[in-house]
């Protein structure tokens, strides 16, 4: 009886490569420093962006400026609220038309300080509370208000007498 042939594939002997074998890199302080600097640069951009965003959020929500000698407008808002965003756009447009700077702050009712503010003044989201320079409420605007109307309100707010400094 004839012997059966082995059908398994036999590896062929490897042929020498035309490329030289890669050299093993030795430790290089210069390469280490370069790698660390690249990593720091990559991480620094998001860290700086996050720090700027956090600082801006604190400034916009700082309600301690009320009664500080200049008129202030506070928008009560909730994140994700489309009418709140529309109101903010209208308020910013109206403020940009003014000759003098007007302080615009936001009270986020999703935060404890924002809820406290809303409760204290009896307001809810999509509301503007206009304060005179002494910190007294001049007017409360509820819902989305057109920029033209807000511009007139902001101009009237700025024309109110300011308290004298002693």
UniProtKB/TrEMBL annotation:
Protein name stated in the entry: Thioredoxin domain-containing protein
Organism: Franzmannia pantelleriensis
Coiled coil start-end: 81-108
Keyword Ion transport listed: no
Keywords: Coiled coil, Membrane, Transmembrane, Transmembrane helix
Transmembrane residue ranges: 32-52
Disordered: region residues: 1-26
Biased composition (Basic residues): 1-12
């Amino acid at each position: 009886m004839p012997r059966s042939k082995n059908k398994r594939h036999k590896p062929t002997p490897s042929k020498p490569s035309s490329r030289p074998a890669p050299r093993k890199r030795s430790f290089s302080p210069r390469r280490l420093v370069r790698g660390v600097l690249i990593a720091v640069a990559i991480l620094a951009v998001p860290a700086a962006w996050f720090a700027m965003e956090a600082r801006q959020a604190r400034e916009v929500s700082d309600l301690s400026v009320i009664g500080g000698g200049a008129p202030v407008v506070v928008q009560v808002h909730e994140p994700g609220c489309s009418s709140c965003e529309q109101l903010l756009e209208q308020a910013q447009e109206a403020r940009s038309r003014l000759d003098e700077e007007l302080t615009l702050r936001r009270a986020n009712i999703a935060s404890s300080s924002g809820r406290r503010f809303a409760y204290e003044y009896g307001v809810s989201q999509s509301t503007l509370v206009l304060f005179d320079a002494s910190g007294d409420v001049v007017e409360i605007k509820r819902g989305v208000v057109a920029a033209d109307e807000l511009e007139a309100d902001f101009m009237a707010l700025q024309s109110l007498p300011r308290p004298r400094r002693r």
